[in-house]
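Following up on my earlier message about RUQ. Here are the inputs again, as you asked, copied directly from the submission form:
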Amino acid sequence: MRKSINISILVLLITGLFSCNTNDSKDGDKGALASNAAEKVYVAPGEHDEFYAFVSGGYSGNLTVYGLPSGRMFKEIPVFSQFPTSGYGYSEETKPMLNTSHGFIPWDDAHHPDISQTSGKLDGRWVFINGNNTPRIAKIDLKTFETTEIIEVPNSAGNHSSSFVTENTEYVVAGTRFSVPVPQQDIAINEYKGKFKGALSFISVDPEDGIMSIKFQLMMPGFNYDLSHPGRGKSHGWFFFTTYNTEEANSLLEVNASQNDKDFIAAVNWKKIEEYVNNGGGKMMPANYAHNVYDDDTHTATSTMMKEVLVVDPLEVPGAVFLLPTPKSPHGVDIDPSGEYIIGNGKLSADLTIHSFTKMISAIENKKFDGDAYGIPILKFEEILRGTVKQAGLGPLHTEFDGKGNGYTTFFISSELVKWDLETLEVIDRKPNYYSVGHVMIPGGNSAHPFGKYAVSMNKITKDRYLPTGPELEHSAQLFDITGEKMELLLDFPTHGEPHYAAGIPASIIKENSQKIYKLAENEHEYAAIANGDARVERDGNEVHVYMTMIRSHFTPDNIEGIKVGDKVYFHITNHEQDFDVPHGFAMIGANSSGLLIMPGQTKTTVWEPKEVGVWPFYCTDFCSALHQEMQGYVRVSPKSSKLELSWSLGED
Ligand code: RUQ
Ligand code: CUA
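Thanks, got it. Here's what our run produced:
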């Protein structure tokens, strides 16, 4: 590999970073305001948006749902982070969702949502998202908009080249950003080179119930695997991963990992490996990772520790893995809707590199190799290159497509969104982004059928775009109309956490399936109180189980006596409402947990360990009726030595 580095770009990256200034911003605004932008984003009161946008929350650990074009925020879906609003990760039922091999982890860094597909089209069943920090992949059910499954990814670290799905959701794929010793061991960090490995995990998704299971892990050389995307159409069956730090440096990466003029895009023929694995290939290796599943009928999650994983050595499957040289530490790799163009966004580059899938296949067939890395053939750059978009901008990160022959690439350093023609590779338009754009999203952008009406750029720096809110500002997204030759800036809207990728989908695909209540008759929660007579309190040693019901505007039981200091009181609360949008809340004074928000027909549990004698109230936290303030009760707590028997009131006089 040649050693050279564009020092000026590196310096820009390290120091200058943000080339745009606020004066540009004012000019840009004028352009947008001169148009009918307001009309284009106006969704009249009571009207619905045309698209859902699922925007990653980055270090919030969650996923936020917005409407497009209005930019209105509809919901924050808790995924990897405890969420006191609903009690996710606090309720006894959902704590297992956050279980990992490292124990209970109440947070993660959530990056790249992707919506399930059938035949290359968004099907709106699930959205997947990766946890970077403690490697995990989560699945959110788009009927309930709840996280229903989380699988930990072993042998990985910084699970960043994730969680993208193949065109029939055969797999959701997760690649490690940081290579690590596999299996983990106590060795010197400077033994990195050659000893650390990069695991690329192919997680199968059951076509019926969506259950995830790690089919195999491809054990690659110890590079950093940054992003990935599936092939589609003609390239279906392949998956592409960018790499950087092919130098395998282990310190001062900002210099040492930028020595090679080109890093690689790893092309993985997963169909070939699947076949190899189905025929008994690969090695089972001991592992320890959590698989957490939430059951909609029992309203309860279970966590199972998995003990092994199937590992595949790429050298054992000749013809399955190739390396595509790609300039300047590529960040995103994006595949156009036809599956022909493989776009490498070299983040230290001014040009965009486009490889051709067809040329890649013929280079493979004709053995146009340029050596190998750890035995994996490196294809000749000139043989696979389709062309470059010249001087497109500085620091390309990510590209999306409109399905009409155009690519839209974000340039972090020059802070702009650039539209270019996939055929001519000419730049068509560029618009400044405020400021320092990361990702861009076009609904359906990672599929064979994008909906090329809007593009949303997600920016890293907000500065003066909104009223100041102290040193910390929310990140900012910008909505563009991309139906014309030129892009038109329509709207800025704040996003929660740090949005990395987002996934958009026409609302029509999912809104009819959106569930309104949980049917009480189908509630199989172990501690549910369904029939009127089910409400009760039971003691089992120092554990007390309260089977409680709630309906406007009453808890049953409402007063409980006979609880003692040192007891562990489980409130299992079932909401008997069967109307859309009538939750009740539950909060107990002094509980070391969050309140609960319980949806109609649902059961949730919280634990309270009273520490002092007295009479302690609980109440409903959601203003549910005119008599909401009356929705309350008391627990009498007696000394540990008390002989007072349990008693409770069922709401009669
Ligand atoms: S990565 S920009 Cu996960 Cu590009 Cu955020
Ligand atoms: Cu129930 Cu307020």
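One observation from looking it over: The chain has two domains: 58-513, 520-649. Hope that helps, and feel free to reply on this thread.
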